[in-house]
Amino acid sequence: MSLNSTLLEYLFYDAEPSEYKIKIAEALENAELDQVKQNLYSFFASIPTDWYRKNDIYQYEGFYASVIYALFTGSGLTTIAEDTTNKGKIDLTVISQEKVYIIEFKVIEESQEGKALEQIKEKKYYEKYQDKYKEIYLIGIEFSKEKRNIVNFEVEKVIPT
Predict the structure, then answer these.
(1) How far apart are CA 50 and CA 131, in angstroms?
(2) In this structure, are residues 52 and 156 in contact, taking their beta carbons and an 8 Å threshold?
(3) Residue 37: what are its φ and ψ, rounded to 5°?
(4) DSSP letter assigned to residue 50
């Protein structure tokens, strides 16, 4: 957690505290997913362009998943990467109080939007948590290779049975 905190401080060294006064953990606790989307978008926009020089890491899903994993873990959230189910692996599961967020990441070409959320629903990743949490949110986050940021952020709430 200290490494994640240090990374967060480094990335936001020039940001005013009021700019990020609603923390990612608070937004998830309150299911304010538009705020989560905006925080993540701003977070990726703050990564210096020089960090992409002479490498193609931004073309891979693991880069974006790792950054978000570090951000959520550094925020003190219970975070599970590559969460195994009977039908595959959830890219990232985040647990906050009585809510669980099932997140799938994709790096896409512009015409492929909607595949991340579709995969969660198709593989029914949420079934693992239906009897454990009162609120289940499915989140598909898609990144553009060209823009190096979020281009699609879809949310769907599942009613546990």
Answers:
(1) 46
(2) no
(3) -60, -45
(4) G
| Contact assessment for residue 126 and residue 102, using Cβ atoms and an 8 Å cutoff | yes
- Maximum Cα interatomic distance, the chain, rounded to a whole number of Å: 49
Q: How many structural domains are present in the chain?
A: 1
Round to whole Å and give the CA distance between 2 and 9: 10
Domain holding 88, by residue range, is 2-158
CATH number at residue 81: 3.40.1350
> Which range has highest mean pLDDT (10-24, 41-55, 67-81)?
67-81
Residue type at 68? I
Phi-psi region of 71 (alpha: psi -120 to 50; beta: other; left: phi over 0): alpha
- pLDDT greater than 70 at residue 8: no
Q: Which helix (H) or strand (E) holds 72?
A: helix 61-74
DSSP 19: G
